[in-house]
Please model this.
Amino acid sequence: MKNLAARLIPLFAFVLCLSACASDRSVIAQAADAHRELEPAVIEEAELAAYLQEVGARVVAAADAMTKAGYGGKSQRAADSRWLFSEDLRFHLVASDELNAFTTGGEHMYVYSQLLVACRSEDELAAVVAHEYAHVYGRHVHKGMNRQYAVLGGALAAAVLSHELAEEDKEEWAAIGGTLALYAGQFLSLGFTRDDEAEADKLGFDFHARAGWDPARFGDFFQNLADQGYDTADDTFSDHPTLRSRVLAAKARAAKLPADATAWRRPPVADAQRFAALKQKAAAVAAKQPAGDALAVAQTLLASVPSCVAAQDSPGNAKARARLQAASAR
Ligand SMILES: [Zn+2]
Model:
């Protein structure tokens, strides 16, 4: 019981915080909270962790230089927005079979091991990293936090699902259900709007190009997914732009770059050979992440987040969201 009370107090504080406003401070605090639950899935292997952080830091450094030169809006250039460019920003590689990347909007961004393995080049990986950072830069989670009440209300309708899922693998569910419930509202609301996604692609493209990767390759990861059959969603109803429209937008942006943009180009952090080795290592290390309830919670939360890259959710995503909705209705 004491344990339950200890868990409910931060939840209560979180809801109070929501009703006030989604300030930088509250988003950063929420992201730090969520990170504690996701940490068991974070790959600590030194070379992989340092590599992803270096790719991310290069994106952030480019955004910082651009913003100092007048890019972005007042809210990015303000003195109290320096955290957007801080060395405290962390880019985590997480062990997950889902093909995704996401951010909780504060200082933490996540790239799933399955996504790294699917990238054919660092240009593709950097495009995804730049897109995630762009959600932070654009403060998209701040806007999303204001949509959370609707989600929490809708979760009550999931009571039936709760029963069905409780029947399925009962023991595991009992062990992790409580922790999932604590984070349900927070994670279920993490989907970005179509406008957010479009803006993250635009900002991400600009950061990617200025950070020295090949702008002609920015759309490659979306093309890669489309080639793998991920583009079956109906453009009209999806929260996401289709993959093909994202590829076309990236190509149009690349064609509009100034002639001197070639001067921005730099070698990748890892050349093709090292990149291939890093992908192999990521797959091997992800498979060996220490098993247990903590990892199960972290991976369920990670799997529940709507796709930031594909135009529709995967079966694993739908299952994890149902679990989370059921947990929030308990
Ligand atoms: Zn996104």
